[in-house]
Write a structure and sequence with these properties.
Layout: E1 8-15, E2 18-22, E3 37-43, E4 46-51, E5 64-65, E6 72-73, E7 82-89, E8 92-96, E9 100-101, E10 109-117, E11 120-125, E12 130-131, E13 138-139, E14 146-147, E15 151-152, E16 161-163, E17 166-170, E18 174-175, E19 183-187
Parallel strand pairs: 4-10, 11-19
Antiparallel strand pairs: 1-2, 1-3, 4-5, 6-9, 7-8, 7-10, 11-13, 12-15, 14-18, 16-17, 16-19
Length: 188
């Protein structure tokens, strides 16, 4: 009878039947003598599927492993405007940032990256001016395009904003959807 072993495929017996593994070894009626057999195994190659959900990996992760593979930890992806919360899938429904595949693990594995939008701040230096309509104090990667409201200052003409938009004053500044990072604007 063929043996079974977790994480391995039985390749056959060697020994009294020869050096080439045979899955079916028949001992004929009338056989005499001491017989010896050794089971031969091949580690099963399991797949690892990872959905980065819009992210990218600086270092690729393995796409397969066997029961004999040494311990390894999945590399985390990165995504502009988002914080990586962790993987879910074969490790459960609660996101885990560090997923370790330990030697001796078996079975195909599947993981999905989970993300959280980063909220960025916007600061304004009005240089004695005041806004007649408020400007946003924060935004995220998915915030729709918006144009800054310009300040007013008695006795002055607004020359434009400088700061995150550059050193040349711009009378109209629009923050585009997909932007990221803290922003700072100075009224001139």
């Amino acid at each position: 009878n063929a043996p079974v072993r977790e994480g391995y495929t039985f390749k056959g017996f060697t020994g009294s039947n020869g050096d080439e593994p045979q899955a079916d070894v028949k001992i004929e009626k009338g056989t005499t003598g001491v017989l010896s057999y050794t089971a031969n195994w091949e580690a099963i190659e399991y797949t690892i599927t990872i959905d980065a959900d819009g992210g990218e990996f600086a270092e690729e992760n393995p796409t397969s492993y066997t029961i004999e593979s040494e311990d390894f930890t999945l590399n985390a992806p990165v995504r502009e405007g988002y914080t990586f919360k962790g993987f879910t899938g074969s490790n459960g429904n609660e996101p885990q940032a560090d997923v370790k595949i330990e030697k001796g693990t078996t079975g195909n594995l599947s993981y999905t990256a989970n993300w959280e939008l980063v909220t960025y701040s916007i600061t304004y230096e009005l240089n004695g001016g005041e806004l007649t309509a408020e400007n946003p104090a924060q935004y995220n990667f998915n915030t729709p395009d918006f144009t800054l409201n310009n300040p007013k200052k008695d006795g002055y003409v607004f020359a434009g904003w400088t700061g995150s938009n550059g050193i040349a004053p711009q009378g109209s500044v629009t923050v585009l959807q997909g932007s990221y990072g803290d922003l700072r604007y100075v009224a001139n």
